[in-house]
Write a structure and sequence with these properties.
By secondary structure, the chain is of the alpha/beta class. The protein contains 14 helices and seven strands. Helix 1 packs across helix 2, helix 1 (about 5-10) packs across helix 3 (about 30-45) and helix 13 packs antiparallel against helix 14. One of its GO terms (cellular component) is cytoplasm.
Length: about 325
Amino acid sequence: MEISTLAEQVIAGNRRALARAITLVESAREDHRAKAITLMEEIGKCGRQALRLGLSGTPGVGKSTFIESFGMMLIKEGLKVAVLAVDPSSSRSGGSILGDKTRMELLSREKNAFIRPSPSQSELGGVARRTREAVALCEAAGYDLILIETVGVGQSETVVSEMSDLFLLLLAPAGGDELQGVKRGIMEMADLILVNKADGDLKPAAQRTCADYAGALRLIRKRPQDPMDFPKAMTVSAIEEKGLQEAWGEMNMLIDWRRENGFFDKRRSEQAEYWFAQDIRHGLLSQLEKEPLKSMISGLASKVARGEITPGHAAADVLTALRGH
């Protein structure tokens, strides 16, 4: 299919065309990459914007259940919702389960919802390398809100904040150890902390955990892009669908404030610069996988292993060769 035709179909809201476009931008083949760049330029002309929500959370916290309940609520309000769920890839086989779609049974049947699981491959950051481009494609297809679900919680999962307008951190009710377990880096990135499973016997524990996090957030240095009382912690119950409307209200309040004060557009500009630098970095690294550098690196690695040359000296030789390549 011609790239211009594919772009037109994506902009027209064709779901199959959107799926094909995402497959194209995720491809590692060089000829596909050239087509993907052309496609991204074509769809960029439509100028559509959606609200981008990044979501991270500890394994078992109920991310999929939250996304389904939250997404269904937004669809009832007349919004179109896209979910980009990134699954961890095996470091041995490279495979991924990609089971998020089956865990969101109700949402996956909605005509105004689009769910796309993607493997993280070898990428750190909790997102796939081309997730940012998949987000832009969903925006062009007319979705009002795009949820980017990361693989889990850790220092590297903060990369999702570089492609989202709001970063939500979903946590389960727990004691003080949970507070120690979540890294400060991801706490500083979060715009809203949502303590899930605030129902049944876990409700008191959820309220205590929420209070703990609210206290911890007050100790973190104030960010210029936040109004008073942000970032904040709230309790929600994805199963009982409680607190979701209140959380959505807080998200809209924060986004409106950032738009009015110029932080929304400024942040998107900074993100574009970040991904420009990342693309250059990835492009340079990909050169190391091509001949003759690939054979040179293999030979130098053997010499380093035998102790014939230091790692620093070997690396300097590769960089010299790369500069002359």
